[in-house]
Write a structure and sequence with these properties.
112 residues, alpha+beta, four-stranded antiparallel beta sheet, 7 strands, 40% strand
């Protein structure tokens, strides 16, 4: 009887862990772009899953340019992928790429 209770408890814990896992994985994903440049604004931002050569760059819908010495936050929604490559383009058309940005931890990209 005690073994049956232990087995039932173990199964319940396992099921609870499986049910809770997607909720943890589906938390919001975001990142911040800080424009450390004093002269030009960030005009465009793209994202792509890190290490996924088949995942093309996806342009982020920007409501406004990121002015010099200011920042903007971006949300990627829910999902279980945390590492993204971020590419930005300044108003002078110079681009910078930042690899392995953890969007689950809300990391900041420091563009200069």
């Amino acid at each position: 009887m005690i073994q049956a209770i232990k087995a039932g408890t173990a199964v319940a814990v396992l099921i609870a862990g499986i049910v809770a896992a997607p909720a943890i994985a589906d938390t919001g994903r975001n990142f911040t772009v800080f424009n450390g440049n004093a002269d030009v604004s960030v005009q465009r931002v793209w994202t792509a899953r890190s290490g996924e050569s088949k995942d093309p760059w996806h342009e982020v819908d920007m409501k406004y340019a990121i002015k010099p010495k200011s920042s903007s936050n971006f949300t990627l929604g829910t999902g279980d992928v945390c590492l993204y490559d971020i590419k930005i383009q300044f108003s002078d058309e110079v681009t910078q790429q930042f690899d392995n940005i953890n969007v689950c931890k809300g990391q900041t990209v420091n563009a200069t």
